[in-house]
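haha ok so turns out i had the wrong file open the whole time. this is the CORRECT one, sorry everyone. sequence first:
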Amino acid sequence: MSARGNAVAVTSPLPGPGLIRALNGLRPEVFFTAATEVEETFRPRAARSRTYRYWEAQPLGPLAEYRRVARMLVGDVDVRSFGRDIPPDIPMRRTVRRFEVARSGPGLRLEFEAQSFVWGMVRKLVAATREVVAGRLSRDDLRGAVAGERRLTLPIAEPEPLVLWNVEYDRPWTFRADQLAERQVEYFRAERRAAQAREALLTGLTEPPFPTHEASIARGKRSTTGSG
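then structure:
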């Protein structure tokens, strides 16, 4: 999983703008966009809401079906079927405020919002959605799990397409960064170039025409070609 929006509490004598500049000099792949003063008892986990995005590169069904399942997972959810390492005999609930599905290129973007999630919850919700769309899980069974009337054994979706997109608090950000440092911009440019090269390579390996390999064996002589 990656994070576009997150929060961390630090103790520093630097004022807000100076602190942001100092933090942005630590590592190019980690960037800070805003800061505000908080009391020592402030806990970053005590957020008002969290938003996760999950990219479904190869949907298992039409957009309308994904949206029908998404509506079933909004509201009060017993998460014993949708989390990891949760005691089975004690109901545990979370309120999913929003689960929206939209087109994103050739795939879909699944966006979840709640005040808090249990460990693995978003990936389990994605897996449950897939199971229903693919016809491997009935809607009645999913409704029963959401209500806490039954337990489901669900797979868990892959972590790579999951991004913690935003975290909101009940206080405004006082100081904001004007722009990323040049070393950060160049890092992300390099990452994008690498991703484009990887995409081109994988496309060439998985779409026809496939590379051909020839091997021949003759008496007393062996020749092979084809190792990449």
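The chain is about 30% helix and 25% strand.
again sry for the mixup
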